[in-house]
Amino acid sequence: MHLLLVRHALPEAVEHDDGTHADPGLAPQGRDQAARLVDALAGTPVDALHTSTMLRAVQTAEPLARERGLTPHTRSDLREYDAERSLYVPVARMAQADPAAWERMRAGHLPEHVDGAAFRARVCAGIEEVVAAHPGRATVVVVAHAGVVNAYLAEVLGIGRDLPFPLDYVGISRVVCARDGMRKVRAVNETAHVADLL
């Protein structure tokens, strides 16, 4: 089957003073980016649509779901490593907001507070459940997060770093999944459909 992994579109910055989890929706530019996913997949059959439970992923999937008449399946195991944090800073602002975290990400590492092995195990188990749920030659779109997509690609490619690829908003990565366990990465971070919005 064909697995299309999509990073969510640009979200708002959020900070909660009461300690509740930051779960931002899309910024206006992010909604424009999400709409482009419809055209990017115009010639591609989509048999199912799965998303992280986080709002930015759910909202990114909405235009494609409407266009294809699909009901997205939300999965908590596809949520990002920052799901329990009260602060969300879009990556473009991270260099100023948290230089140390930015340098770790540039070097391909998750923030220090994240258990990288546990995160990767959760993500990979979740994505493999998605694969198993769609036998045959199905094409399935999974809308999630840069950390989630990186974790799965790193596992498939045998890369030790948790964040090996800089993934753009609504970038598409493609993996062919055979029933004998073979996984082959066909593309990473396709962005022609959103190039003018990044």
Automatic annotation (TrEMBL):
InterPro entries according to UniProt: His_Pase_superF_clade-1 (IPR013078), His_PPase_superfam (IPR029033), PGM_Phosphatase (IPR050275)
Gene Ontology MF, one: hydrolase activity
Keywords assigned by UniProt, alphabetized: Hydrolase
Hydrolase among keywords: yes
UniProt superkingdom: Bacteria
EC class: hydrolase
Enzyme Commission no: 3.1.3.-
Gene3D superfamilies for the chain: Phosphoglycerate mutase-like
This protein's name: Histidine phosphatase family protein
Organism encoding this protein: Pseudonocardia alni subsp. carboxydivorans
